[in-house]
Amino acid sequence: MSIDTAKTILIVGATSGLGRALALALAALPSAPTVIGAGRRKARLEELASKGIDTLEFDVSLPIDQLKKNIDDLIAKYPTLDAVIFSSGVQYQQNFKKQQVNLEEISKEMHINYIAVVSTISLLTPHFLALSERGLPSWIIPITSGLALKPGPQVINYSASKAALHSFSDSLRIQLADTKINVLEIIPPLVESELHDDQGMTETLSKFWMPLDKYTPLTIEGLQRGDLHIAAGKAQAVWKTIEAAGLNGPFQ
């Protein structure tokens, strides 16, 4: 189902990159949904607010009790919340040939990219199920990566975390198939991002990535069509190969 009918859209990780670009693009839709940009950086949230985006200080990596309280408060403030997009994430490089891999980075990467997303989905799902019982649609939209389909050895654990989220999304869609909850997955290629700044790779990767001003409209079009898997660029080529081979989707 098209995102055009969504009333209130929460974007987790809206302070930079793709999350910010989607927040601005969705707020500009003719359907004029309320868009809530969630993130940790106050200055970035203030900048979004100046552009007409509702903002929320939000950290998906909080302990589950605090995360639940924040979700409950959010739903109380925005009872029409009917869509969530997960754009937050971290990326590190690991080389297992080295004597010692940074296990704290491994844990943080898996927690933020996968466990925190699944936890937040689990806390939002009862609200979406209640909407479904009233005949109202909702959307759960994780952003994974082309590396979920074809991993990058230099970002070995990042690829694994996104593959886990891709697998979860496909199975969640089946579990919720008899409800009005739509599970869509955004599968970007290498796109313009601050994700690589800490690795010192931004200058190198900027020669190869898809600029956000080219990528974002393609993703918005997919959301408006209600595509279950929204891929573009090289990620789209990989996804089409998977589909053509009949390897998409979980066992049923």
UniProtKB/TrEMBL annotation:
Tree of life domain: Eukaryota
SUPFAM superfamilies assigned: NAD(P)-binding Rossmann-fold domains
One Pfam family of this chain: adh_short
InterPro entries (UniProt xref): NAD(P)-bd_dom_sf, Sc_DH/Rdtase_CS, SDR_fam
Protein keywords: NADP, Oxidoreductase
GO MF: oxidoreductase activity
Family in the record: Belongs to the short-chain dehydrogenases/reductases (SDR) family.
PANTHER family assigned: 5-KETO-D-GLUCONATE 5-REDUCTASE, ALCOHOL DEHYDROGENASE, PUTATIVE (AFU_ORTHOLOGUE AFUA_3G03445)-RELATED
Descriptive protein name: NAD(P)-binding protein
Protein's organism: Mycena chlorophos
